[in-house]
Amino acid sequence: MLPEITVTELSKKMAAGEDILLIDVREPVEYEICALTSVLIPLAEIPKKLENIPQDKPVILVCHHGFRSAQALQYLQQRFGYKNLLNLKGGIHAWAEQIDPTMPVY
């Protein structure tokens, strides 16, 4: 089972000002529609952008529904030994539904 975080848990961490990094693995066109404050690294670019993914602080991976971010998490864990990653359960869509109903959905 992949380590994950719910949108409610993430919202609490963000409100508390915790030192976390959000990495969005969607495509730029999706990111333009809606996004949390995050670093955009599309899934296909993950292998080329490892220097932008720290291993010394919590990193939460985000996508539309949580599937691509789960792929990125598995890849980073299995290939590079990352132990600090969480997948956002339900993705940005769950955030829009449960936390910020003003956020555009697609």
From TrEMBL:
Residues 16-104 form the Rhodanese domain. It holds the Pfam family Rhodanese. InterPro entries: GlpE_sulfurtransferase (IPR050229), Rhodanese-like_dom (IPR001763), Rhodanese-like_dom_sf (IPR036873). It comes from the Bacteria. Gene3D superfamilies: Rhodanese-like domain. This is Rhodanese domain-containing protein.
